[in-house]
Write a structure and sequence with these properties.
Pyridoxal 5'-phosphate (PLP)-binding protein, which is involved in PLP homeostasis. This protein is an alpha/beta fold. The chain has a single domain, classed as TIM Barrel. The protein is built from 9 helices and 8 strands. Strands 7-6-5-4-3-2-1-8 form an 8-stranded parallel beta sheet. Strand 4 (about 95), helix 5 (about 100-115) and strand 5 form a beta-alpha-beta unit. The two termini are about 20 Å apart. It binds pyridoxal-5'-phosphate. Pyridoxal-5'-phosphate binds near residues 29, 189, 205, 206 and 209. Pyridoxal-5'-phosphate binds near residues 29, 52, 76, 189 and 190.
Length: about 220
């Protein structure tokens, strides 16, 4: 477990970019990790975690929250409408708002529940057919439509194509956020979080660099 090392690298990258280290939130991505590794990071005092699947998160986080107190939980993976209610009850932030139909479902449930997680709209900056997210050309409209629904949109999220220069995608996303008046930028993972911070990331999602490689279940 190398939580402290990652935090130090985040602080250094922030300072190099002329930013306050506190302006970058570290989301420890605990998907598929064995419980003892997650517990070690909780024991070290970290309280911001990310998961990809509602079902998996529902299986482990109520117990961890009972044992460790409040934990800020972020949903990073695709969300099916039929899991939206459960996701809204479990997560504090959802990074994978990727279509208008889901936005409408979240708005309806927010009325019903009287609360709504903070939201990031996921943008498929590489326009990859297999990847979730709105296309770059549709992002401005999606932001406007989500705002019209009264949803708390914090910012934009993206997962750049693996075989491309991530910096270009981070810049594209940052420009998109700026022109839409959004301050949140969820970008950067184990291999590129320092580059993401240089381009303005406010939320970096780091899994394997903290917990070690994910082993298949
Ligand atoms: C798994 C995952 C991460 C973390 O990836 P690492 O390479 O282990 O840091 C970040 N964001 C999303 C959306 C993920 O699915």
């Amino acid at each position: 477990m190398s939580l402290q090392g990652i935090k130090a690298r985040i602080a250094a990258a922030a300072e190099q970019a002329g930013r306050a280290p506190e302006s970058v939130s570290l989301i420890a991505v605990s998907k598929v990790q064995p419980d003892d590794r997650v517990r070690a990071v909780l024991d070290a005092g970290h309280r911001v975690f990310g998961e990809n699947r509602v079902q998996e998160a529902a299986g482990k986080w109520p117990g961890f929250r009972d044992a460790f107190g409040p934990v800020e939980l972020h949903l990073l993976g695709p969300l099916q409408s039929n899991k939206a209610r459960q996701a809204m009850e479990l997560f504090d932030v959802i990074h994978s708002l990727d279509r208008l139909k889901l936005a409408r479902t979240l708005a309806r449930l927010a009325d019903e529940l009287g609360r709504c997680p903070d939201l990031f709209i996921q943008v498929n900056t590489g326009a990859e057919p297999q990847k979730a997210g709105v296309l770059p050309d549709d992002a401005d409209t999606m932001v406007a439509e989500c705002r019209a629904l009264g949803l708390p949109v914090l910012g934009l999220m993206s997962i750049p194509p693996v075989d491309e220069d991530a910096a270009r995608h981070f810049k594209l996303l940052a420009d998109m956020a700026t022109r839409n008046g959004l301050s949140g930028l969820s970008m950067g993972m184990s291999d590129d979080f320092e580059t993401a911070i240089a381009h303005g990331a406010t939320h970096v999602r780091v899994g394997s660099a903290i917990f070690g490689a994910r082993e298949p279940a």
